[in-house]
Amino acid sequence: MPRKKVEPLFHKIKASSYDERKRITIYSKGKIQENGCWEWTGFRDKNGYGRISYEHHQKMVPVHRLMYKLLKGEIPPKLYVCHHCDNPSCFNIHHLFLGTPKDNSRDRENKQRGRTQNQNGEKNHAAVLNPEIVLSIRKDKEDGMRERDIVRKYRLRQGTISKILLRKLWKHI
Hints:
This protein is of the alpha+beta class. It has helices at 18-28, 63-72, 101-110, 131-142, 147-154, 158-165; strands spanning 30-32, 38-40, 51-54, 59-62, 80-83, 96-99. The chain is built from 6 helices and 6 strands; from the N terminus they run H-E-E-E-E-H-E-E-H-H-H-H. The strands form 3 sheets. Strands 1-2 form a two-stranded antiparallel sheet. The longest helix has 12 residues, at 131-142. It is elongated.
């Protein structure tokens, strides 16, 4: 199958430093999409993120993080470079923003994508309980049964029972 010709983003840029040469390399492996994404056409990891060697081939780094660093400066520790466009191979600086892991999770949930989508209760693949058991646990407590007896009856951890009774788990029931 013939390889698609990729239009480079920028042509004939002179580079005077390692970082500038690396930026030119990134641009040369990008393809502009109709939605404005600059999509990486080089190596991608299993999650679709572009990867490139950096620091004189000492390590592979995500392309979008490297591009952010090259154009905007150092990325503070513990911050993610997130995508407004939800395209992991995009490195368009206008589609990227810094956020905490919590910001990233909230963004994923708001856009209803990823593993957290609609996985409450028995919809979660790892659930061992169902609504009937949860209601039964709560009824046992209302009827005066001690928490440790409920733990023995249902063969669950004490922490799980407490969270069910406090409505931290199965709060939708």
